[in-house]
Write a structure and sequence with these properties.
Distance between the termini: 24 Å
Order of helices and strands: HHH
Structural class: mainly alpha
Radius of gyration: 14 Å
Oligomer: single chain
């Protein structure tokens, strides 16, 4: 049981890291790209200014897992 939980946590770490680095605007961008909603954050939060490809690469495992669900 501990091995299963450790595996899930290991899979989740890159996701947490990517969203933490992207902040609110990165999270909204990721939602827009993967779910079709999110958009640009309201002021005073600035739009995402980082590397979109790096952010989305960090979320690959989440997107793959979500697509595998029935």
């Amino acid at each position: 049981e501990i091995e299963a939980v450790t595996g899930v946590q290991t899979c989740a770490l890159p996701i947490y890291w990517a969203l933490q680095k992207g902040g609110i605007s990165g999270t909204k961008l990721a939602l827009e790209k993967t779910q079709g909603y999110g958009g640009v954050p309201r002021r005073p939060i600035l739009p995402f200014g980082g590397d979109e490809a790096v952010l989305m690469k960090g979320l690959e495992s989440l997107v793959a897992y979500e697509k595998s669900l029935p």
